[in-house]
Amino acid sequence: MNHETSRRAWSLVLGLTAACNGGGGATTASTDATSTASTSGGSETADPLPTGTTGTTGTTGTTTSAATTDTPTTGPEPTTGTTGVPGFDCDGEVDSAWGLGDDVGDLDGDAWTPGRDRDGRVNCVSWQTVPLNRWVRVVGTRLDALDAEVKAAIPGWEDRGNEDWNGVLADWVGMAWDTRKGSERGWVTVGGGHDGSSNDGVYKLDVRAMKWSIERLPSDSSKWPAEYSASFTNFNPAIAYYENDPANLEGVYSDEFFDPENPDISTRTPTSRHTYGSTVFVPELGDAGKILMGCRRYWEYDIATATWSLPKFPFDAAADYSGETGYTGENMNGWWNAAEGRYYVAATQNYNQSQTWSVLAGGGEFRWEGGYPIGGWGALSTAQDQRGQALHSLVYEGGRPHTMLLTDLDTREVTYQELTYGPSTEGLMFDPQGGSDGGTLAHIAETGRYLTNFYPIGEGMLWAWIDEATWTLERAEIAGDYPVEVNWNTETKLEYFPDIHALVWVNVGEEDIRLIRLQ
Predict the structure, then answer these.
(1) From which domain of life does this come (predicted)?
(2) Contacts of 388-394 spanning 24+ positions with Cβ under 8 A
(3) How do residues 255-271 score in pLDDT, each as one tens digit?
């Protein structure tokens, strides 16, 4: 992988002023919903909180850790249904999205092979067998199993990247999710980029079927020019066209398949790239929903037609990372405000001036949002989870999870909760130059906690619970079938599905997915 090394400058600055442990307490602020003011330049290294909001911000400092709570590290104790099976009764009122067949599949320790009905849905009786509160491996859910299907559809197809299918998921790539009851699914779109993967396909994970499928085939690689072989984020003919005419009427830029001399590959669709947390599924758009992506420019993918709309530069600006004309570069997080019908994405890649922009569905009326809900250096080090009109943002400081931002999307009010490190985490050390690339966050309202990950020195990647009653962070000692190869760039590839009470973790293309079935 060839990731952007320039992030090290800002992560070093963060680390130099990072507090050892966060203190308790909450403060709130709100911003004008129509504000277009950006923050000014200058150092924000002592304050990782939003710079474009009004009101009081939180403070940083060293505090002693809170007392240990009695909350179990893997969730509450299970209850038992009328048949003696944890959670629910397949002989009674059952979720109609489960299959009703009698194939229970197979359970070998924490490796679960689902039993399915004739329509491919996981049977209710099979789901019942999944152990509670443990990492369970879902056998047969490797993304790279689609390789033969892609090659059968496109003879001679190959991934020119050095990571092949692993790069589709591993290279700072996130997923878009549909968490509605009965429609639980997720998509990875044009994942990879740089030298990791050239695979620009769209792939769907159906959670109720526990199966990957091809949503949209990748481009025919045999038609690409030979020189398209190193940084797959930028397509060589499109680069040349843009550099010759930056103000071209077509709106062409380097991150799309465009070649005026070769119509067969001039699809104007996005190249493979690091999508971070920018992809968001919006069910109310189009006939079957759309996936919105604010990576580099603004893109929309229509599920019903399997087509990408033409991309749009924010504010019709050329490729520029500076000030309010910048487009979106790296480490961004996106979300959808249903009340406004607007897509938001933060941060643009101008480092200490990193800010948020928003756009109406369809690509009209771009709006500069300043430091909402967070701007500056801190915006580049966040993990995020959206639940309805509530946005949860975990802010890292010098690699350390530091502050939770709770944003009410209807009112734009932001509440800041500084984290306290409990007995299992208070002695952890962090590399001030390590940054916090790839962190993830899942809010589980029923348990009153979040699951997140972080990277202390000498520990590798750790999972942690954050208790929203005490805002204490403790190690999550979760037993079960853990992946042999762990991708630290989790981004938005961890998702919680409230109606089936399960967390799903998509790791890399050569590993089966993992899940935790909660009670």
Answers:
(1) Bacteria
(2) 388/338, 389/337, 389/338, 389/339, 391/335, 392/441, 392/443, 392/450, 393/333, 393/441, 394/439, 394/441, 394/450, 394/452, 394/466
(3) 999 999 999 999 999 99
